[in-house]
């Protein structure tokens, strides 16, 4: 199982989602000063009734809490879109 599948599974385990799309935007940041080939710049699009009912800050905190380990080790930047 690859890194992106692990992220999807971890989110789905904690939140009943209808759909998750992960987009790797790391290539857009290659020329940035602190670019690290070992860390990702991701956009996650999540369709979830539970997250949609939360206010935006709470929903983002929930995702950041679920992905805490990945954010500390493999994710440099995370953009979250909730539908």
Summarize the entry for a quick read:
The protein is of the alpha+beta class. It contains 4 helices and 3 strands.
Please describe what this structure looks like.
It is globular and about 40 Å long. The termini are far apart. It has 83 residues and is α+β, with helices and mostly antiparallel strands. The chain has helices at 3-14, 49-53, 56-66, 68-73; strands at residues 19-24, 40-47, 75-82. It is built from four helices and three strands; from the N terminus they run H-E-E-H-H-H-E. It has a single domain (3-82), classed as 2-Layer Sandwich (GMP Synthetase, Chain A, domain 3).
Annotation keywords:
three-stranded mixed beta sheet; 83 residues; 27% strand; 4 helices; alpha+beta; GMP Synthetase, Chain A, domain 3
- Count the E strands: 3
One letter per element, helices H and strands E, the order comes to: HEEHHHE
Strand order of the largest sheet: 1-2-3
- Binned, the helix content reads 40-55%
**Largest β sheet strand count, sense and barrel closure:** 3 strands, mixed
CATH class: Alpha Beta
- State mean pLDDT (0 to 100 scale): 93
**What is the annotated CATH architecture?**
2-Layer Sandwich
Strand percentage, roughly? 25-35%
Could you say which overall geometry the principal axes of the C-alpha atoms support?
Answer: globular
Q: At the fourth CATH level, what is the homologous superfamily?
A: BolA-like
């Amino acid at each position: 199982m690859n890194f992106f599948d692990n992220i999807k599974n971890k989110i789905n385990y904690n939140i009943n989602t209808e759909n998750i799309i992960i987009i790797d935007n790391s290539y857009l940041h290659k020329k940035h000063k602190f670019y690290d080939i070992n860390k990702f710049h991701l956009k996650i699009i999540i369709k979830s009734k539970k997250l949609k009912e939360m206010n935006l800050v709470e929903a983002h905190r929930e995702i950041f809490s679920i992905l805490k380990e990945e954010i500390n080790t493999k994710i440099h930047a995370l953009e979250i879109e909730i539908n």
